Amino acid sequence: MTATDEPRVLKHQVVRGQLDRLLDGMTPGEPFPAEREIAERFDVARETVRQAMRELLVAGRVERRGRTTIVARAKVTLPLAMGSYTEAAKANGLSTYRMLVDWTDLYADDVLAAQLEIAVGAPILQLERVFSTDGIRVGLETTKLPADRYPGLRETFNTETSLYAEMQSRGIIFEKTVDSIETTLPDARESALLTADARTPMFLLNRISYDQHGIPIEQRRSLYRGDRMTFTAIMHSTQRP
Length: 241
Fold this sequence. Notes:
The chain has 241 residues and is of the alpha+beta class. Helix content is 28%, strand content 34%.
C-alpha cells in the first residue's frame, strides 16, 4: 500500500455507519428496524445487514429481545478491582441484584485442590448466581469455596448480597487476587441464564483470591456479557525517578 492508497471500506461498514447515525436519533428500548426493512432502505443484501447488525450487537448499541431488536442502553462500566462488583456497581449509582442459581456440594479434583491448596477430595461448596444491573442480566458467577472454612454458609448467607462482605464478617481479609481474562462464547445454559444470544461475546474472568495470610480462599469463574459490560483498570508505573 502506498502513502496515497486509502483502506478499502467494506459494504457492511458503510451500512454500519448509516445505522449508527440512525441510532443517534433513537432512545433506549425503542424497536429497531428489521433486517429486511434495512436491506430495502439501503438497497443491500440481507447478509450485509447481518454483518452490520452483529457489529452493533457487540458494540452494545442494540440488543435482541426474542425475535425483536431494540435500542440498547449504554454499557455498564465497572472497575476491574479486587472488591465486590455489587459494591462497585452501587458506587456508580446502579441498582444491582443477584439471583441464586444453585448451591452444589463438590469434591476437589487435582486442579482445584492445587489452586486452593487443599487435599484432593476435600469438600467444596459451589455457589452460582446471576448478576443483574438496572434490571439487565449481565453476569454469571460461579464460586468454589473450601467447605471446611465456611461452616453454615449455605444456611446463613443472604445470596442477594455481597459474598465478599460475608467473608469479611467472618474475619477473612482479602489481600490479593490473581485474575486471568479472556473472551469466549456462552454455551446454551449460560446464554439462557443471561438471556443472551448464543453468539454474544463474553468476558471470562477466572480468579483465585488470597487472605491476609496468603491462603487461597476462593476460586471464581465470572462470565460477563461483552455487549453490556465494560471494565476499566487504573495502573501506576513502578519506576521511580
